Amino acid sequence: SAFRVAPPVEQSMRSTPSSLSRRDAFTESSRVHPPSAQSLPEDVPLFVRLSCTDWAEGGWTLDDSVKASRLLREEGVDLIDCSTGGATRNAEIPVGPDYQVPFAEGIRRGAGIPTGAVGLITEPAQANAIIADGRADLVLLGRQLLREPHWPARAWVELKPDTSSPITGKYGYALRETRPR
Predict the structure, then answer these.
(1) Count of Cβ atoms closer than 10 Å to residue 30 Cβ
(2) For residue range 25-41, what is the model confidence (pLDDT) as tens digits?
(3) Nearest one of 38, 51, 42, 47 to 5, comparing CA atoms
(4) Which of 1, 40, 47, 79 has an alpha carbon within 20 to 30 A of 169's alpha carbon?
């Protein structure tokens, strides 16, 4: 498989001051140990999903994420997948379109590493603008693809209506179904 799951990295990244309730040798360590980029084939990128803030006073911040991202870049990480929240109960998350995109943009600029943006990115033009405006290098879609499996086909029709379909044959029906009538 081209992708490997690394539970220790996820655990380390979620261990923010606001989310920790236990204190021991594991939780006292702030060093993150991603899988070695050298252990992966040259053509396999190493992405790390980072919770860029826990949205709680005194907790993990964008500045902390920029610092961590610099260290991860030095360790050979290729891209930071920028998510947020979910680590504390008292978080006040301002959910809305693009609400996590500023974190991808901040890390991209502050740490000099490519980023992936997530969070209520639901429209093709919205996703395209995030990339075109240099706010992130990649848009990652999750729930929207579960709600709308043909979203990539709709994006093609909306963003490139006068070009040939990248999907042919028996799968081409997806593009036909998304074209305005």
Answers:
(1) 11
(2) 544 444 555 556 677 78
(3) 47
(4) 1
